[in-house]
Amino acid sequence: MAIVELRNVSKRFRKGDETITPLDEISLEVQAGDFVSLMGPSGTGKSTLLNLVSGIDRPDSGTILVNGTEITRLSRGQLADWRAQNLGYIFQTHNLIPVLTAYENVELPTLLLKLTSDARQKRVELALEAVGLSDRANHYPRQLSGGQEQRVGIARAIVAHPQVVVADEPTGSLDSETSGQIQDLLKRLNRELNITMLMVTHDAGVAAIANRQLILNRGKFVESPSVAIRQESPDAGLCP
Amino acid sequence: MKVLNIVVSGFCLVLLGCAENDGKSQANSAKPAAASAFILAFEPADAVAVGVARENAENDQSIAVVGRIGGSEKPFVDGIAAFTIVDLKVQYCADEEGCPTPWDYCCHQDEVKTNIATVKIIDESGKLVSGDARELLGVKELSEVVVQGTAKRDAQGNLSLAASKVFVRAGK
Amino acid sequence: MLLPWEYGIRNLTRRPFRSGLTLAALSIVVLLIIVVVGFIRGLEVSLADSGDPDVVLIYSVTSGENIESSAIAARTPGLLTSSVAGTVNRFGVTFASPEIYLGTRIGNENGAVGLGLIRAVTETSPLVRRYVRLIEGKWPVRGEVIVGKLAAAKLGSDPGQLEIGKKLTFEGQDWTISGRFVAEGTAFESEIWCILADFQAATMRQDISLVALLLPPQGSSSELTLFCKERTDLELQAVRETDYYAALQQYYRPVRLLAWMVVLLVSGAGLFAGMNMMYGSVAGRIREIATLQTVGYRRRAILMSLVQEGVVLAAASSLLSGCIALTLLNGHAVRFTMGAFALRIDSFALTIGCGAGLFLGALGALPPAIKALRESVAASLKAI
């Protein structure tokens, strides 16, 4: 069953007198539990696609359905509520709130859910445990390394138990060793929590962790010939 | 623009409201008190001007004096039915001059000194009537009145009229 | 759902220098507002309390609303008491106070000269001026004066120069201070009192400025008014003291309007200070605000949080200013044309000052917050 479905979606931008069309009548179906990577040259609309799927941008035409909800019909406020319930977003630059601790950053999305304080606390602790940062819960972002910050960002993305997580260059600002750790973490989350993942990356090596690799070029998708095989080696229990 | 229209309309309404109130209070204060026992139905024929009375009236002489209520900013005495009247020949501030209290004769105070008299309304037993002359007689500042009563003059030339009846001329 | 309270509070500590400057600016604004409102309140209360409802002032009709320029015949008190019934009389003493009241240049022992207010009185004056109470020294005799609590403020002089035994110079004569008095916060407290006959001799005046008459409780001033109207040759007017000071309040209306204008202008400056701080604060947080929206927070919740920041800072400023005003400025004497009065930092002044502060905090945060939230989330996520 397709959890993310794009039908004839177009997006245009005006740049001076010129109109750029990064997405031109594209259609895509992503099945539940898929891990899809999106690659392509700069400016081909990868991030735009991610923004459309997460409802922080709107297409000029076409429809987008996520988990059965036609998000292109929702108002701005409804989209915010929908994101709180259904979507996690991992940013390239982590985007943690500097005045809040790691715990408080992860707690932010849960404040939008109807949870008891005990249930909320449990979720936050489990999410931090899942990314291996239980011992850093009371640290502020400035007291964390880049990799730890990204782990907090990932914990924040999964703490509300979303159906879909989108990741925009999640390893883009990390060194190769830390990047590898984050890739492992994302793979485990996809595999063990069965979270559908949509990841934009420039790096073919990073893209390879996905079980489906798409290349976006001149506004159209090109399916990569080398479809990744779902990896089957759970080495840590992640299920909260 | 819509908001501006509402604000301007509201402001105009407030102004209109104020104007209407003013008009109403003036009309009320000038309304004749028909039931008053001190009102004369007909104007006495032999009334003399205030200035003339100040010069010629004898003490305790019965007299009718015509004048206009005014002479100071507050010509009525609070709590007593008494007021001052000024000779009609003395000019008060014209309407177009925009003076808020034209009855004080501020531009002709020198003339007022020799053309003013104090009117005290007295009852049948000769006692001063308490209350407000405006309500009792239905008069207001600048009303023209003919006062019938007894003159009292002192050595300094001040004239008081112990009035038993007052005729209020129509108009101001 | 609103953002956690801590988020707004901690954001204030992010740029401590900027927040500190804004706190100082807002505190000054709130303090200025409190002081100006305290000035207005002090003036109003001083004038409102100064009139005794049972006292009628008889003074020249030609002086308008200014007793200082009034000159009436010295025989007026006798004429009044003999012609008009209704004033208080006990043991053969009529409660009538003939007085000269004028502003003149007064020098002290240091040679400093200031404009002061003299009231020349008689022994009957304390019977009429019931608020006046001698708190130190004795009633003056020839060549002596008693000084009000705020007389030093009115003169702009060192209070030490108005102690008992010190000398003052006015109308070409030296006067020794024999006592000090209070008058329940009324305008009398800024005056200097001396003996009428003494002052008439010094000024070579034979007239007086006014007669103050005490009516019995619920007594009417009608007969006095009628007497003044009948005796047009004397050119007198009878005005209840409360009405006199109420008229003075009207006279000072432009001053009060100006003071309120100052409140508005100062508030405007405060608004800009608040806005400047919040623009700076929000401009550095464009991506963060977009992140919160991406997480699922509605724009309204973020707007509330930003307003909360402004209000918290303004509340701190208001608290600080309120404390300073209450402890350092309340009761401070202010000199003005007809005397001196105490700054009155009362609940009204504090409410206006602190209310304006909170309002400015909230209002100052709105435009930058709205501007930030209008931006596209996708574009804001790329902001540096």
The CATH architecture of chain A comes to 3-Layer(aba) Sandwich
Shape of chain A: globular
Strand order of the largest sheet of chain C: 4-5-10-7-9-8
Q: What name does the CATH topology of chain A carry?
A: Rossmann fold
**The first-level CATH class name of chain A:** Alpha Beta
Mean pLDDT of chain A: 87
Element order, helices and strands of chain A? EEEHEEHEHHHEHEHEE
Cα radius of gyration of chain C in angstroms: 29 Å
What is the quaternary state of this protein? heterotrimer
Q: How does the helix and strand content of chain A classify structurally?
A: alpha/beta
- The tally of structural domains of chain C comes to 2
Strand order of the largest sheet of chain A: 6-7-8-3-9-10
Of all chain pairs, the largest interface belongs to: A-C, 30 and 26 residues
Helix content of chain C: 40-55%
Helix count from the secondary structure assignment of chain A: 7
CATH superfamily of chain A: P-loop containing nucleotide triphosphate hydrolases
Shape estimate of chain C? elongated
- Determine the strand fraction of chain A and express it as a percent band: 25-35%
Topology:
The complex is a heterotrimer of chains A (240), B (172) and C (384).
Chain A: E1 2-15, E2 18-31, E3 35-39, H1 46-53, E4 61-66, E5 69-70, H2 76-86, E6 87-90, H3 102-110, H4 117-130, H5 146-158, E7 164-168, H6 176-192, E8 196-200, H7 204-207, E9 212-217, E10 220-223
Parallel strand pairs in A: 3-8, 3-9, 6-7, 7-8
Antiparallel strand pairs in A: 1-2, 1-4, 4-5, 9-10
Chain B: H1 2-29, E1 48-49, H2 50-56, E2 62-69, E3 82-86, H3 109-113, E4 116-121, H4 133-137, E5 144-153, E6 159-168
Parallel strand pairs in B: 1-2, 4-6
Antiparallel strand pairs in B: 2-3, 2-5, 3-4, 5-6
Chain C: H1 5-12, H2 16-50, E1 55-60, H3 76-83, E2 89-90, E3 93-94, E4 96-108, E5 113-121, H4 125-128, E6 133-137, E7 144-148, H5 151-155, E8 167-170, E9 173-182, E10 191-195, H6 196-203, E11 210-214, H7 222-230, E12 236-240, H8 241-251, H9 253-283, H10 286-295, H11 299-329, E13 333-336, E14 339-342, H12 347-374, H13 377-381
Parallel strand pairs in C: 5-10, 7-9
Antiparallel strand pairs in C: 1-11, 1-12, 2-3, 4-5, 4-8, 4-11, 6-9, 7-10, 8-9, 13-14
Helix pairs in contact in C: 1-11, 2-8, 2-9, 2-11, 2-12, 9-12, 11-12
Description:
The complex is a heterotrimer of chains A (240), B (172) and C (384). Chain A has helices at residues 46-53, 76-86, 102-110, 117-130, 146-158, 176-192, 204-207, and strands at residues 2-15, 18-31, 35-39, 61-66, 69-70, 87-90, 164-168, 196-200, 212-217, 220-223. By secondary structure, chain A is α/β, with parallel strands linked by helices. Chain A has one domain: P-loop containing nucleotide triphosphate hydrolases (Rossmann fold, 3-Layer(aba) Sandwich). With 172 residues, chain B is of the alpha/beta class. Chain B has one domain: Bacterial OB-fold (OB fold (Dihydrolipoamide Acetyltransferase, E2P)), CATH 2.40.50.200. In chain B, helix 2 links the parallel strand 1 and strand 2 (62-69). Chain B is globular, with a radius of gyration of 19 Å. Chain C has helices at residues 5-12, 16-50, 76-83, 125-128, 151-155, 196-203, 222-230, 241-251, 253-283, 286-295, 299-329, 347-374, 377-381; strands spanning 55-60, 89-90, 93-94, 96-108, 113-121, 133-137, 144-148, 167-170, 173-182, 191-195, 210-214, 236-240, 333-336, 339-342. In chain C, a hairpin with a 2-residue loop joins strand 8 and strand 9 (173-182). Chain C has two domains: 5-48 and 252-381, no CATH class; 55-216, no CATH class. Chain C has 13 helices and 14 strands. Chain C has a six-stranded mixed barrel with strand order 4-5-10-7-9-8. The mean pLDDT of chain C is 87.
